[in-house]
Amino acid sequence: VHAAGAFQGLDEIRGVTVGYRRTGQPGAQTVNQQFATEKVPITLDEVADVRYEYKEVESLVRLDGVECVGVSVYKEADENTVRVVETVMEELVKIERDAGDITLVMADDQARFIKTALNEVYQTMAYGVLLAVFILFVFLRNFRTTLIVCLAFPISIVATFNLMYFSELTLNIMTLGGLALGAGMLVDSAIVVVENIYRHRQSGAGMLESA
Fold it and tell me: Rounded CA gap, 203 and 190, in Å?
């Protein structure tokens, strides 16, 4: 059974039954000698004025002083913010191309903050490694020893990314910050170990014994 639940006009709305009233009939009497009653429907137009009206404005969206329609897009918890924003931007281009009489403007983009933060983390990691390697070379004045410390950083990063990939872990601000912190600690440890080996070598010990 299929029933249409949508109103087609004001007349249908006016005819909606909202209640019933009882009317006495002077005919047949009941056992209690009370008048029999009949239910008469009460329609909406009897108790209300039904007409088209504009809905009362409760909020406005303006962009550069011009009223517009605001649409917010939220991602699911397990989705990547940057990927979602890129997909939405692609769809907006298609919509604006198909509907030439509207203009779509991106008012807020959370991916912009994330990209900026990621770039800062990348730069901080790169600057930290370069400074550590430079200082180590200045103090030890040995290219091979400095190269060992340089190799420790990319090897650890590649190993971490492999572990994250097979564990289905994703990158975010916290994981990149932890990665930068861990890489810095790894470089510090490498410097301590290599410097100690270098000191033993300077004292005349062999390579294996120094290591």
Answer: 20
Residues 6 or more apart whose CB falls under 8 angstroms from that of 114 comprise 81, 82, 172, 173
Report the distance separating Cα 134 and Cα 128, nearest Å.
10
Whether the CA torsion 144, 182, 211, 131 is positive or negative: it is positive
For tokens 């709305």, name the residue: 13
Scan for tokens 């809905």, then name that residue: 55
191-211: string of b/e by CB count within 10 Å (b at 16+)? beebeebbeebeeeeeeeeee
R_g of the chain, CA atoms, integer Å = 38
CA distance linking residue 42 with residue 17, whole number of Å: 6
Name the residue with tokens 């009897």: 46
Sequence letter at residue 138: V
Model confidence pLDDT, tens digit, residues 14-68:
999 999 988 765 555 555 545 556 788 999 999 999 999 888 888 888 988 888 8
Q: Which residues are 101's β-sheet partners?
A: none
* Residue of 75, 158, 153, 162 lying closest to 114 (CA atoms): 75
Per-residue pLDDT tens over the stretch 102-138: 888 888 888 888 888 778 877 877 787 788 778 878 8
The amino acid that residue 156 corresponds to is: S
Identify the burial level of 16 via C-beta atoms within 10 angstroms of its C-beta, where 0-12 means exposed, 13-18 middle and 19 or more buried. middle
